[in-house]
Amino acid sequence: MATRSRASRRGRSGRARRAPASVRGRDTRVDSLRGLVLIAMFVAHCAPSPGPLRLFNLTEFATAPLFALLIGIGAELGDRGSRGLPAAFVRAGIRAAVLVALGLWLETWGAQVDIVLLYLALPTLLAPLLARLPVTALAGVATALWASAPYFMESFGSKAAEAAVRGDQVGARLWNVVFTGTHYRLTTLLVFTCIGIILWRAMSSVRLNWHIAAAGAFSLLLAAGLMLAKEAGRIDFEPYSGTHLEVAFCALLVVGISGVWLGLAPDHVDIPLLSVAGAMTLSVYVVQIGYLAWYVRSYAPGQPDDSWANVAILTALGLVLPLLWRSAVPREPLTKGPIEGPTAVLTRIFH
Fold it and tell me: This protein's superkingdom (predicted)?
């Protein structure tokens, strides 16, 4: 099935709202959403069939956009620190450098997956700047990127090809990451990062969270309408294609999923099986690639990795290993994860 991809707040009424649940300063609702996205990623990478009503195909549309959306939410949640934007850029630069280094390394492992980390590095780097823009500017950036992305893909495709012919692998890769990627590209992922920032600000300003849930449900209804029209042959859009219709469908889908989850989840909710995994997303991603590389290189050479057994194994590993790590390594900041902990040591220097 899978294409290879891969403080207390106050409402308008002035009534104090409960602070979101947190573990060591983290919003566990957001971490739990990340945990759900991890499971969606395992399905997108390994599910051998589209499932009932082709629902599992939706993971192909939603997973990478949700990760980009969560980068935007993380930028809004993150402490900007007393040193302002320059320090925020340095912290983001450290995280982006980790993503790039890991992404390039993971590509050498041989898994049948298009490593998304390189493509998420630029949204991570730019998120602190986006988080300082007003909503109207964010909406303008997202709309401009949505409108121009297909034209960028077409216009710069020849540039990437020319760079590859010249042997300029770095140049070809940059064109690919920013404009012309087969599955991912900065010009579309940034749309969802902007949406994440806007969504979280809406969460902080509306009177009741169920308003966000209702907006999310309406967004899902619109997405369902587009999918029904696609299945009836009236319109056509494919995951990762970067067309106007595909990006719009992805936006409706991820706004719906995140809006319903964040709107309906109680402020005090904590589902450790999801939230702990969600707090260690990068480490779980590495575990996934390691397992899939072993599967196709040693366990079943030459065979695809699509199987429900692999979905189940990855889900078990992805949810249980973070809990075991947190139990075995309770000391901050290493309890954040084998990759997240050392990264936090570096970023905290600039708070």
Answer: Bacteria
Task: Round to whole Å and give the CA distance between 285 and 6.
Answer: 11
Distance CA 159, CA 269 (A): 49
- Report the distance separating Cα 1 and Cα 130, nearest Å: 35
Q: How far apart are CA 30 and CA 125, in angstroms?
A: 20
- pLDDT tens-digit profile of 57-90? 999 999 999 999 999 999 998 854 445 888 889 9
Q: Determine how many CB atoms are found less than 10 A away from the CB of residue 171.
A: 15
Ordered alpha helix ranges (H), 131-185: 135-165, 169-175
Q: CA-CA distances (angstroms) from residue 326 to 132, 250, 285, 319, 344? A: 33, 34, 17, 12, 15
Q: What percent of the chain has pLDDT over 70?
A: 91
Give me the long-range contacts of 214-217 (CB less than 8 A, separation at least 24). Answer: 214/263, 215/255, 215/259, 215/263, 216/255, 216/256, 216/257, 216/258, 216/259, 216/260, 216/261, 216/262, 216/263, 217/256, 217/259, 217/260
In the numeric block, the tokens 């909710």 are attached to 269
Cβ atoms within 10 Å, residue 241:
17
Lowest mean pLDDT among 71-80, 81-90, 223-232, 272-281: 81-90
What type of residue sits at position 240? Y
Q: Is 200 left (phi over 0), alpha (psi -120 to 50) or beta?
A: alpha
Residue with tokens 């075995």: 328
Q: How far apart are CA 276 and CA 32, in angstroms?
A: 8
Q: Considering the entire predicted model, what is its pTM?
A: 0.90
- Rounded Cα gap, residues 216 and 202, in angstroms: 12
The strand pair at 9-10 and 22-23 is best described as: unpaired
Nearest to 9 by CA among 192, 182, 262, 249: 262
